[in-house]
Amino acid sequence: MARQSGDERRKSGGDNEGRIRARNEAKILEVSVRLFSTKGFDGTTISEIAEESGLPKANVYYYFQTKAAIYERLIAEVFDDWDAALRHIRPEREPREAIGDYVREKLESSRRNAAQSRFFAGELLRGGRFLSRGQRQHMRDVTREACAAVEQWIAEGRFPALDPRHFFIMIWATTQFYADFAPVVAATLEVPRLRKADFDDAAEQILKAIHF
Amino acid sequence: MARQSGDERRKSGGDNEGRIRARNEAKILEVSVRLFSTKGFDGTTISEIAEESGLPKANVYYYFQTKAAIYERLIAEVFDDWDAALRHIRPEREPREAIGDYVREKLESSRRNAAQSRFFAGELLRGGRFLSRGQRQHMRDVTREACAAVEQWIAEGRFPALDPRHFFIMIWATTQFYADFAPVVAATLEVPRLRKADFDDAAEQILKAIHF
DNA sequence: GTCTATAAGCTGATAGAC
DNA sequence: GTCTATCAGCTTATAGAC
């Protein structure tokens, strides 16, 4: 690394600049997802993002043209994860195992990225104004595919005759709830704050409660 | 009505003034819950509330001292409904009927008051900063009571050995999801917008999917 | 790439005439 | 009770020196 001459480094696209850019952008995004998730789009200020990122406000604007650009970048990042877990749902797999893996992965990823999960939930709660047409279409396509797998299981007599669409809604609702509405869950479980063990319990209870 | 003299009416506390106050306050609250639910606390402006209420901004301040006061009043209103539906869960009732009534009422009330439901979900999503200590305690008490009823059913062998706390979380998560994340649900069901029939389907599918 | 200074506009909230 | 006019403060975003 740092094989460039001083002259080259001062020009654009050098290794150093690239690394600084990557580090600063990552820091800004990491801080932003946390702030947006707890204070919303309008409640979050660029000054605050700059302060918590350890950068002057003008530098935040150097990396992202507007506040909305930061928000949209985060939407795109989170969006990629929406369907990643759905890869477990394949018609050739054993239903119990596939759904078990899916539920456990959903719960674990929302636990590990709680701010991201809440951020996305907030966006959906407000109607998903920042979601592009393509992103919406992609969600529909992925969902339809997963439903087709369940329908095949039903046709083969390996799964109860439930509407797969409502079945997935139920899974999403339940797995998201633990991370997104943690204060309610903690109050219900009568614990000061949620730990990994609570999420593990949740996975087992969900799988036990669903009739399949 | 209107039994007062003109002189009395001009003083404070008259029927007319009371009626005007009630009407204006109700209008402000009705408009506010819709705006807060789609734009959040900081994204909603008093000017906008005033405009959509058909009042000058100063009049909104005449009825509510601050923006937070409007928000808190709404929280209190919604809060009363949280446990109202839980009255169905009583140990002497038949589990299937009690839970069926509960799920159906939850879905129907969230459908009819979707803005209110989303408003409260948004507040919980952000950690419930506006919830008072007393309100939190009340939630815990009501939940504990409902769990006790389920535990009695289990002890009597009328209900599967599930953790009642996770069971209720699952019910809340699922029933709330349809109103709160309507765009996702509509996309999944492949309908342009949700109708009453979709909520009715949801109730039956949820009850069919849960193993009890 | 970094940072200070500042513009331009909007916000919550109030004063005070009617 | 109603409404106009206004303030003080904070916001996003930019200009321009280093």
- Approximately how much beta-strand content do the residues of chain A carry? under 5%
The top level CATH class name of the largest domain in chain A = Mainly Alpha
Name the pair of protein chains with the most residues at their interface, and give those residue counts: A-B, 53 and 53 residues
| Poorly predicted tracts of residues of chain A | 1-13
Structure notes:
Chains A, B: Residues 22-82 form the HTH tetR-type domain. Chains A, B: Pfam families: TetR_C_3, TetR_N. 2 copies of one chain form a homodimer. By secondary structure, chain A is mostly helical. Chain A has 2 domains: 6-64, Homeodomain-like (Arc Repressor Mutant, subunit A, Orthogonal Bundle), CATH 1.10.10.60; 77-209, Tetracycline Repressor, domain 2, CATH 1.10.357.10. Helix content of chain A is 74%, strand content 0%. Chain A is built from 11 helices and no strands. The first copy, chain A, starts with 5 loop residues before the first helix and ends with a helix. Mean pLDDT of chain A is 91; it is low at 1-13. At the A-B interface, helix 2, helix 7, helix 8, helix 9 and helix 10 of A face helix 2, helix 7, helix 8, helix 9 and helix 10 of B. Chain B binds a DNA duplex (18 and 18 nucleotides) through helix 2 and helix 4.
